[in-house]
Amino acid sequence: MSINLNIDKEAFDRDGYLLIKNVFSNEEIEQMRKDAYASFEEDKKKGLTFKHPSKMSNAVYAKGDIFSKDLLRKYVLDDRILFLVKKVLGADPVYFGDSNYHFGTGFRGFHRDNVDRTDLTAPDWDGDYPIVRLAIYMQDHKKYSGGLKIRVGSHKNPSGKPVFVDSEVGDVAIWSLRTMHSGNAVRFKFFKNLMINKARREGWIPAFMKRDQQKERATLFMTFGLKSKHLDRYIEKHVLGRDDVRGYLQASRFDPKAFEEAKKKNLEILKLVPEYGTLE
What we know:
This protein is α+β, with helices and mostly antiparallel strands. The chain has a single domain (9-269), classed as Jelly Rolls, CATH 2.60.120.620. The chain is 26% helix and 20% strand. It contains eight helices and eleven strands. Strands 1, 2, 3, 4, 5, 8, 10 and 11 form an eight-stranded mixed sheet that branches. The longest helix is centred in the N-terminal third of the chain and has 20 residues, at 26-45. The chain is globular, with a radius of gyration of 18 Å.
């Protein structure tokens, strides 16, 4: 596959995020949506699906990472995804099972995804932080609610100017785990660039004022990194240090032959728990 994507690494390093336009076609995104729903039905049969108990969220999730899903693995291994991650990180990435897919409206509120989220003198803030998360939103968020907000430059600073990430169908957003961001952003019907940056206030906006999706919000999230002290610490403190995240890995049962698919794409898959990549 010939890959022609505009990856502005300088902009990523400066701003802490990047929106890559037209990575997938409309037809590919429609197929991705079908694959996600079909995968969810398979996960439901296995007892892996759940809804978060909080009243602030109506999103539904499935345990097990995307690589463990037969219908979704191809998106982790997509040449375009691996190309853009390598360009942003500057070297071949590794994948370690930190990914998920879900439907519906989840939580709002600016936050970081790294270990040391508030203390900028802590180890996470020593030098560059080569761990990134990317999102494929399967619907338009340039005009409609449910997308991403970023605080520009907050991967190097205490905060930054908030902006909407105007993702459209086929785009991919990628950001540093140190970057402050908020999901499920509200777009107003008549003032689409008006932004409310308090999560509670954003949740109080009545439906008649919001420009909501005509389709259910569906999203894939994937995390990649470079082998480093930061990745080692993230895995120790976040992936293996939290029961819920470790449980996702333990639920990731699949044919070990899938590791060979990743090897052909020069993607190293870290097996962090014994259950990962084994058949039930």
